[in-house]
């Protein structure tokens, strides 16, 4: 994680926001690190780092509502993934026309669920999609716990 990204998350109070029995900062970093370890590109990793910064259907806390501030930090492609993740129909994002974007979002969802040690039923379904081999191996490991 870039130091300036960490500083931005600290400025947003992510180190004080509760999420999954720890802080939002810890969760966001965990998702980022999984995506990085699975070989995802920088846009996907950055989107994972900020994936719930606008809130989601299950995590209602909004840490940031200014899209331009995030675009300035991580670029338009990463921010677009963050926006879609926050509004999208998880976990399969069937409302997204682009297969590449849909797979990137599913990869973020897998990292999100694994980092929280939750969603085993959903992870089983995601295992049979075209996500990366690294994500599939992580799902198999998570399900064996």
What does this structure look like?
The protein has 145 residues and is an all-alpha fold. The protein has one domain. 60% of the residues lie in helices and 3% in strands. The protein has helices at residues 3-11, 24-37, 42-49, 67-74, 76-87, 99-116, 120-126, 133-143, and strands at residues 18-19, 22-23. Strands 1-2 form a two-stranded antiparallel ribbon. Strand 1 (18-19) and strand 2 (22-23) form a beta hairpin. The longest helix has 18 residues, at 99-116. It is globular, with a radius of gyration of 14 Å. The protein starts with a helix and ends with a helix. 34% of the residues are buried.
Provide a concise account of the structure shown.
With 145 residues, the protein is an all-alpha fold. It has helices at 3-11, 24-37, 42-49, 67-74, 76-87, 99-116, 120-126, 133-143, and strands at residues 18-19, 22-23.
Helix content range of the residues, please?
55-70%
Number of strands: 2
Structural class: mainly alpha
Could you report the average pLDDT, rounded to the nearest whole number? Answer: 93
Give a topology summary:
Elements: H1 3-11, E1 18-19, E2 22-23, H2 24-37, H3 42-49, H4 67-74, H5 76-87, H6 99-116, H7 120-126, H8 133-143
